[in-house]
Amino acid sequence: MTGRTLRVAALYPERLNIYADRGNLLVLQRRCAWRGIAMELVPVSLGDRLDPDAHDLLYLGGGQDRDQRLCAEDLVATKRDAVHAHAARGGAILAVCGGYQLLGHRYALGPDEALPGVGLLDVSTDRGDARLIGNVAIEVRLPRPGGDGAPMEPRVLAGFENHGGRTVLGPDQQPLGRVLEGHGNTGTSGHEGARSGNVVGTYLHGPLLPKNAWFADWLVAAALDVDPDALGPLDDTLEDGAHRSARRAAGLPAG
Q1: SS3 content of the chain, % helix, strand, coil (to 5)
Q2: Which of 36, 61, 152, 246 reaches 20 to 30 Å from 27, CA-CA?
Q3: What are the phi and psi torsion angles at 142 (to 5°)?
């Protein structure tokens, strides 16, 4: 894969950064570098315009209520159309926790206040009475990038969740995965996250990608529109160990 460049835009990195987001971006950078793929990382902040054709992958992390409120207003006012255009051309998006909520229709903080979302995913979020916290594992079946989109074999994503929101999926919205251990979107639905094409929203952090290197590779492949096998193998002894540890922490066999 030498000679390729992965163009990543981190949206609001100075505000949506409380769930080890730097670790996720670092994993992408290192795994690309080990394969001879350059990674161009651009911060896109409040008031900045987003070029829908300038990036292969958009990344949104989580933040405190005040920061999430500012980002929600800016995302809708200055970047909504660009985010939709990016997704429509097959661009990849990973949105974690608060970022996931902002990809939906709205996040109701209470009876008199709701943060607007861009409506890219058919989900809506309401604040619950208590936070959903703990280790979590889900089963996902993602489409194979770079081909006809046929589903890949089921895989496990393992991480940590800590969210007060209860996210409900619309009738035709596909979840990211099935909860094996943990709470997921609502604590009762049995679903975690949401996905549409190459757009992924999830509550899993801790951070997510260091514990699931295979998923980092899927994101890179989806963003570059290549088969994951075309990226080439790496020595993932440490990464596989981290994944097994995350599975055990969630209550699953190490696998």
Answers
A1: 30, 35, 35
A2: 152
A3: -95, 155
| Model pTM score | 0.96
135-170: pLDDT as tens digits: 999 999 999 999 888 999 999 999 999 999 999 999
Q: Is residue 49 included in any domain, yes or no?
A: yes
Q: Is residue 208 domain-resident?
A: yes
DSSP string, 93-113: EEEETHHHHHTSSEEEEETTE
Give a yes or no: residue 150 inside a domain: yes
Q: Which residue type, as a one-letter code, is found at position 110?
A: G
**Contact by Cβ (8 Å): 205, 20:** yes
> For the segment 41-79, what is each residue's pLDDT rounded down to a tens digit?
999 999 999 999 999 999 999 888 889 999 999 999 999
Is 71 tagged catalytic?
no
Cβ atoms of 50 and 93 within 8 Å: the answer is no
Eight-class DSSP state of 179: E
Task: Examine residue 246 and state whether it is found in any structural domain, yes or no.
Answer: yes
Q: Is 205 a catalytic residue?
A: yes
CATH number, domain at 66? 3.40.50.880
DSSP 141: -
Domain count, the chain: 1
Catalytic residue among 97, 163, 191, 243: 97
Q: Which of 86, 183, 205, 243 is catalytic?
A: 205
CA distance 10 to 187: 29
Find the domain containing 185 and state its range. 5-250
